[in-house]
Amino acid sequence: MRSLVFSIVILGAATAAFAQQWEFGAVGGGSLLSDVSVSGAAGKATAGFAPGAAFGAFVGENLYSHLTGELHYEFMQSDLRLSSGGQTTAPFTGVAHALHFDMVYHTNRKESRTQFFAALGGGVKVFRGTGAPEAYQALSQFGYLTQTQAVKPMVSVGGGLTYQLAPRIFLRAEIRDFITAFPSALITPAPGMKFGSLLNDIVPLVGITYVH
User: Fold this and answer.
1) Which end of the chain, N or C, is less packed with Cβ atoms under 10 Å?
2) Residue 37 within any structural domain of the chain
3) Which residues pair with 150 in a beta bridge?
């Protein structure tokens, strides 16, 4: 009997320890992408993506007291555009999907209801042009907006804070920078034009985390 009780206690402690290792969250916010320069024989312009909404979800495992591994997915509205001299191309819809794994360094949750964290990781970002191609596009002397897809390696860097609302519920606010090469398959340079190569996607997010 004593052996059975001892086994139950050990099993319960192990289960509780395991239960504290996982986090599940959902976030929402916006996607603010930088433009890249366009230059060449036709003059100068900028190419990029309009600001849009962003939504995501993640699961994390608390590996150590200050270190968590998190797997993230984000969906972002990213309409394509070219701009020059105050003129911008007609709306051409687009979306993006990001999948990445981050290592997150944070302060110990047991010490304060408010915790700060920094994140660094990597993954892939899928850009998709979903608009309907037209026979004539404004600013076509600089480039073309296309209905296609491009997959780019991505670096994820950011930080934020969590605030405890209840014993297992946390409010989470963060800002991310998703860094990729510019997807020139979606916005294709016209002959004789050169595009910038690096794209930053600043993504502020707010959400709820459940610790299990």
Assistant:
1) N
2) yes
3) 127
pLDDT tens track for 96-120: 999 999 999 998 766 678 999 999 9
Assess if residue 133 is contained within a domain: yes
Gap between the Cα atoms of 133 and 145, Å rounded: 8
Q: No. of H helices and E strands in the chain?
A: 1, 15
Structural domain includes residue 5: no
What pTM, to 2 d.p., does this model score? 0.86
- Least Cα distance to 95 among 127, 131, 133, 143 occurs for 127
> How does pLDDT run across 29-54, given as a tens digit for each residue?
999 999 999 999 899 999 999 999 99
Residues in the chain: 212
CATH number, position 198:
2.40.160.20
Element (H, E) at 18: helix 2-19
Tens digits of residue pLDDT in 157-182: 999 999 999 999 999 999 999 999 99
Say how many C-beta atoms besides its own lie within 10 A of residue 84's C-beta: 18
CA distance 193 to 87: 18
